[in-house]
């Protein structure tokens, strides 16, 4: 049992009950997490105690095949967390996709570590922001690998990697270089942040500072078979990409739900004048309900490899980011000065929504990918 004053299950047997999982997540989000949210936002507190409790509740493991592959429940849990705190919602996504990499790798060495990860006993994030943009042709791959006996040695510097610290780990991708410097393929591996990896501070953001985000510096970091997620990496990424993107939708819907909460909070006292604002609660609620229905339908088949399915996921993720921007802005307009206080949720959610709009894949990246996929469908 963790140190938080809330009863959560300590075995996975309770995870079979979807209602109980969501109830436990809700109690964590509205209780201990709500009490920490300003510390997370203002002081950069990294809430591993909350993450441990979420792990015990099932929030970090129910999307895995070994626990029923319930992506819809995972998204609902992430929404509940993000409704209170966008930073912790993002940590939840980072942890979820790291578990996804481990399980889908099929590597026995990584599978032996998966249960502790899913239970929130160990913690790991994702270092795929640069690789995802590189594979899309937006920027160059920053980590480089060379073949050596028994594996690879990886070098390079990778910024903006979240939910990591010494003793933790993350999924990463490196370009394998031939002797002439050309790229042969890419490998994906679990990067253990031990004495071989150096963590350097990143410039301070205006929000999301409680996500333990660092620059990773590697110099001939050895990657052996026990750490390998995929070699080559591209077929693996193609297989999990839709699930990777779809899981992010829980952050967006949580911010929208929290924004609706703040709008309705002031309706009794400001409703008579707020009715002149655009993006009122009824309009936003209708769009939110429609988006939620789309996301839950997609969550039924997250590994559908069709082009049409990927387009639907990209579009839903884009709609979620755009709706989060509008809803958070509307929330502040509805609350007025009280929502502009440093401790107020509406001003914080605006910054969180902006993050959802720029985190990989950002809105511009999402539209880039949709344009590329639709161009492939056009007749010659």
UniProtKB/TrEMBL annotation:
Pfam families the record matches: Acyl-CoA_dh_N
Ranges for domain Acyl-CoA dehydrogenase/oxidase N-terminal: 22-110
InterPro entries: Acyl-CoA_Oxase/DH_mid-dom_sf, AcylCoA_DH/ox_N, AcylCoA_DH/ox_N_sf, AcylCoA_DH/oxidase_NM_dom_sf
GO MF annotation, one: acyl-CoA dehydrogenase activity
Transmembrane segments: none
Protein name: Putative acyl-CoA dehydrogenase
Natural source organism: Pseudomonas fluorescens
